[in-house]
Design goal:
- By secondary structure, the protein is an alpha/beta fold.
- The strands form 3 sheets. Strands 3-4-2-1-5-6-9-10 form an 8-stranded mixed beta sheet, with helices on both faces. Strands 13-12-11-14-15-16 form a 6-stranded parallel beta sheet, sandwiched between helices. It has a two-stranded antiparallel ribbon with strand order 7-8.
- Strand 5, helix 4 and strand 6 form a beta-alpha-beta unit.
- 46% of the residues are buried.
- The protein binds uridine-5'-diphosphate-glucose.
- Uridine-5'-diphosphate-glucose (UPG) binds next to helix 1, helix 13 and helix 14.
- This is Glycosyltransferase.
- InterPro entries: UDP_glucos_trans, UDP_glycos_trans_CS.
- Its EC number is 2.4.1.-.
- Keywords: Glycosyltransferase, Transferase.
- GO terms for molecular function: quercetin 3-O-glucosyltransferase activity; quercetin 7-O-glucosyltransferase activity.
């Protein structure tokens, strides 16, 4: 399959893509930067990507992407949930450091002409403004989530969904949602957290970040109009939501499909922030399993497993009696979970636990039958692009929406219900895997939908397909803005 070519700016257009340094943000940002230009992530992420560039924190180039790190004032990577003074200090440090990157690139003969930033990076917005540069927000979650946040903060409809966000049974109907979505089950978890004031520090910090981002997007003094929004989705996947948000936001470019990394596409798309288990070991193990037999379990780069949750997953796996590959990161793993896994290696030997793997390669392997996922948006896109039926077990943030898309919109997953304390029980896990890939009618329907969506997503990544055209339109739009500014 022909791969989309790079669409870097011509005539001196140079994009600086700034992203938060965690895996779920880095993957889509890096895939975009491959096609555009320089990637700037906070130092803690840069150091994990390029340990050998420390301690000097040098800029790095891999021949395709130029990596120019900046300090966001929190170089240990801890979440910035501190006090007002602390936030102000971090912001100043972050603005100064990123401004220095912009000046350095100019001095090196590569002046930045447009800044792109992922979610909740208000200081990047300020830097773009200070340098008189146009800015595009790179929305790395689905368009449906963009619709939900936009109308939450702008008060759509009867009293606004904000008025109902505290009611888990409320069915939200918004422009672009093809069917009502239940507030407690299908909408971003931060809306209810915000409305009820029950969110923890991290959740509150993230909601504040979203609110500020939408305020910045509304404010001509902060972001030059038109405000451009790139969405990591494709028209094929979310046409209705994209259509419905355009009247509110203006220039919305659905560029997602080309940035879904596809194994075997001949491009090294992934940089892993976690030490991978020896790839040969788990790939050889997968090679030895029967076709479409392995249950792959992964909850992304942020969630950790409590001891009870780990026990329940093992209980479910035992009940299924299928080979399994389970990612349990070393970071954040408690000694109790460690002990449990050691004991399991003996008790349930037909599986493998890894600390981290190349997920796209795993999902592309013919022995994998089912993906038990937390529904991070990258994992969601990867499941669909690889045609692997899923068990959708969302936890927080955008994940309930992504689960709704997987199960109800695209019909490629079974939605798992967690208990009130957030635990996915073994019985529920096993029930859902059986429904998703067993011998019943539902599994047959899910298999057919998975094949069909895989085809659609692959068509969307082909050279000249709508997503690539959309990325080219974005570049053209930036060039028009440059032309207008310079004349
Ligand atoms: O062993 C592993 C496990 C994961 N991954 C990759 O890590 C990424 C994980 O991203 P995602 O699935 O989006 O999950 P999170 O890391 O949890 O991402 C955060 O960021 C996403 C983008 O904003 C949100 O959709 C999620 O809810 C949020 O938790 C994916 O590309 C996976 O392929 C691996 O390569 N190997």
């Amino acid at each position: 399959m022909a791969q989309p070519a790079a669409v870097r700016g011509e005539h001196g257009t140079h994009f600086l893509v700034a992203a938060y340094g965690i895996q779920g943000h880095l993957n889509p940002a890096r895939a975009l930067a491959r096609r555009l230009a320089t990637l700037s992530v906070p130092l803690f992420g840069h150091r994990r990507m390029f340990p050998s560039s420390s301690p000097d924190d040098q800029e790095v180039s891999d021949g395709v992407i130029h990596y120019a790190p900046f300090s966001d004032g929190q170089d240990d990577g801890s979440w910035p949930t501190g006090s007002g003074d602390e936030t102000a200090r971090r912001r100043r440090a972050s603005c100064d450091s990123l401004s220095a990157v912009v000046r350095r690139l100019a001095a090196a003969g590569r002046p930045v002409t447009c800044v792109v930033c992922t979610l909740n990076m208000p200081t990047v917005v300020q830097v773009a403004r200070a340098h008189g540069l146009p800015l595009a927000v790179y929305w790395i979650q689905p368009a449906t989530v963009l619709v939900a946040y936009y109308h939450y903060f702008h008060g759509h409809g009867d009293g606004g969904i904000a008025a109902h966000a505290a009611d888990p049974a409320y069915e939200a109907t918004l422009p672009g949602l093809r069917r009502p979505m239940r507030m407690g089950r299908d909408m971003p978890s931060f809306l209810a957290d915000d409305a009820t004031g029950t969110g923890d520090d991290l959740s509150q910090m993230i909601v504040r970040g979203f609110r500020e981002m939408f305020e910045q997007m509304d404010d001509e003094e902060v972001i030059m109009k038109p405000c451009m929004v790139l969405v990591n989705t494709s028209e094929a996947l979310e046409e209705t939501a994209l259509e419905a948000i355009r009247p509110y936001l203006g220039d919305v470019f659905a560029i997602g499909a080309p940035v879904v990394p596809l194994a075997g596409a001949g491009e090294d798309q992934a940089i892993h922030l976690f030490a991978q288990d020896e790839e040969k070991r788990y790939m050889a193990w997968l090679d030895a399993q029967p076709p479409k037999s392995v249950v792959y379990v992964s909850w992304g780069s942020l969630l950790t497993y409590s001891e009870r949750q780990a026990e329940e997953i093992l209980r479910g796996i035992r009940r299924l009696n299928l080979p399994y590959l389970w990612v349990v990161r070393r970071e954040g793993r408690s000694p109790e979970v460690d002990r449990l896994l050691l004991a399991t290696a003996a008790a349930v030997p037909e599986g493998m636990v890894v600390e981290w793997c190349d997920q796209v390669r795993v999902l592309s392997h013919p022995s994998v039958s089912c993906f038990v996922t937390h529904c991070g948006w990258n994992s969601t896109l990867e499941a669909v692009a690889c045609g692997v039926p899923a068990v959708a077990a969302p936890s927080w943030s955008d994940q309930p929406v992504n689960a709704h898309l997987l199960a109800e919109e695209w019909g490629v997953a079974v939605r798992a219900e967690r208990e009130a304390d957030g635990v996915l029980t073994g019985a529920e896990l096993a029930r859902c895997v059986e429904l998703a890939v067993g011998s019943g009618d539902m599994a047959t329907a899910i298999a057919a939908s998975s094949r069909a969506w895989k085809e659609r997503v692959r068509e969307a990544v082909a050279a000249g397909a709508p997503s690539e055209r959309s990325l080219r339109s974005f570049v053209k739009r930036v060039q028009e803005l440059e032309f207008l500014r310079s004349n």
